[in-house]
Amino acid sequence: MTFGGPDVNIANFVVIAGVSTVQARNFAVNNTSSLPDLFMKNLTVTDQKQFPDHMRPLGTATFRFLCHAGVGCFTRCCRQLELYLYPYDILRLKKRLGISSEEFLNRYTGVVKGSNPCFPSVIMVMNDNAEKTCPFLGEGGCTVYADRPSACRTYPLERAVDRTPAAGADREFYFLTNHDYCLGHGEAKEWTVKEWVRDQNLQMFNQMDDLWAELDTLFADPATWRGEGSAGPRQLLAFMVCYNVDRFRQYLNDQRLLEQFRLDKSRRRLIERDDEALLLFGFDWLKHLLAGKPTLQPKS
Ligand code: SF4
Ligand code: SF4
Are 269 and 224 in contact (CB under 8 A)? Predict the structure, then answer.
């Protein structure tokens, strides 16, 4: 069985050329040693957490920003992007477009080697035109605005989640980015992080992205793949569960997967009809399958 689909080939993941502008994106900080070397110089200590000098968490401070059709740079940021897509982004976009997850992957994405040393990342492929515009950029701006990816809605902020066990509960930090071309920073409107998160409907994206980040950490451990190497059966399975939710539903039904675990009726019914619930089940199943975590209880 081909888990990734005929054209979604994770065996040959490559860095796509021509994506030099880095868009703001969520990232998880498991511990400071996981930050790239570049970031380890000139650390700032904030609330016992270390960050590079140029990354000062906003905390409760306000920032000025407004993006609207009247700014001179309108849509300037929707081109030449290195726009990483997370599982929940793909789910929202494929629903928005009314196509299957497999069709979405084939039409709009590429599989690349990102920051995870053992598992590929998915990136939006820009249009093949002089400006390398995002495929969802229209004359009036973003054509998928209500379902735009988390990186687009988080901008101009970046979010980091500290999952250091010693810190107890997860802690999130937000940082303000500042690209020279972005004139939104010159607008008068002031926001707190809390107001921005609410205004951009980020809560659900953050919840789903945090669960994905846990899995991504598991995927970064070579032991997870039991020596199969890249694009082995376990990686193909994991890729399908995370990114190709419609193919996963077919697999779940073919393999009668739900019947193998103790699930209360309401959750089971939700998984059967709802893609978000299916994705959450998939995350639990992968943790159970790949790392033996007690996220699901098998029937004896
Ligand atoms: S203000 Fe910034 S975010 Fe808005 S369109 Fe301009 S560059 Fe993009
Ligand atoms: S998805 Fe929308 S907001 Fe994001 S880069 Fe594309 S056009 Fe811009």
Answer: no
φ, ψ (nearest 5 deg) of residue 38: -50, -40
Ligand 2 pocket, mutate which of 137, 139, 145 (most atoms under 8 A from CB): 137
For 43, the token pair is 């650390």
Give the closest residue to 131 by CA, choosing from 83, 183, 70, 77.
Answer: 77
- Secondary structure class of 133 (helix, strand, coil): strand
Q: What are phi and psi of 58, to 5 degrees?
A: -70, -30
Helix (H, G, I), strand (E, B) or coil at 21: strand
Instruction: Give me the pLDDT at residue 167, please.
Output: 63
In this structure, which residue's CA is closest to atom 8 in ligand 2?
Answer: 78
Distance 261 CA to ligand 2 centre (A): 39
CA of 77, closest atom in ligand 1: 8
Mean pLDDT of the chain: 85
The 3-state DSSP class for residue 223 equals helix
DSSP 8-state assignment for residue 246 = H
| pLDDT, tens only, 274-299 | 999 999 999 999 999 999 999 999 99
Across-strand partners of 43?
Answer: 52
Residue closest by Cα to atom 3 of ligand 1: 67
DSSP lists the bridge partners of residue 44 as: 51
Calculate mean pLDDT across residues 16-36.
Answer: 30
Cβ atoms 107, 233 nearer than 8 A: no
The bridge status of strand 43-46 relative to strand 141-142 is unpaired
Distance in Å, CA 152 to ligand 2 centroid: 6
Amino acid at 245: V
Residue of 180, 179, 126 lying closest to 18 (CA atoms):
126
